[in-house]
What does this fold into?
Amino acid sequence: MPSIELKKISTRAPKDFDKNETKEKLDKILLELDDLQNLLYAESKHAVLVVIQGMDASGKDGTIRNVFGKLNPQGVLVHSFKAPTAEELSHDFLWRVHANAPAKGMIQIFNRSHYEDILITRVHKWCDDKTARKRMGAINDFEELLTAHNNTKILKFYLHVSPEEQQARLQERIKDPKKQWKYNENDFKEAALWDDYMNMYEDCFEICSKQPWTIVPADQNWYKEYIVATTLRDTLKSLDMQYPGLKR
It folds into this structure.
């Protein structure tokens, strides 16, 4: 039995969270993040890697836009991992990932990540369990390398959307002219494999948890963004950063 069972975790905010109050808190947190990110960039002693995973239509793009969009673009980078190119496939699976690891002073966001190589690949049987276990070991070693040797804080978020909300959002991509560019017929085929994906995610959470995962209820965007922003804010504050003094 996995330590995290997604079906037992709510995809919605706790009932005692008020939407308007939470959005007001989020606005204040985003102002704090602006200052903290500037401090991170100036001090240049730490790096931050933000991994955002989730099913199609779980809100990855919106989270990146609404939480990180107001930060200084000089200090924030986003990389979206698509299907590997021929060149990338000719290397080990982490080759393209390591090339995008954050430098000190930077926040690097992965929209999907190295975890796709043990998720979609397993669901579609492109990667057997033995190979997946080896990859998980390599992922753990890779994350340990970043944290131990480059002062990198790794924040891993799984955007936990319900299948009902996912279907509603996928249908919205058909009907809303502003969202039709996101429509991909294949998303509905992937959604039909929901149970398989949940099993693979739970296996991933079990084995690749030295750098802990945050399971983010994602049916309500305001709560999802509040959790991600709060976690990032608290992490940056914990670094006890200081502005460098005058250079002499």
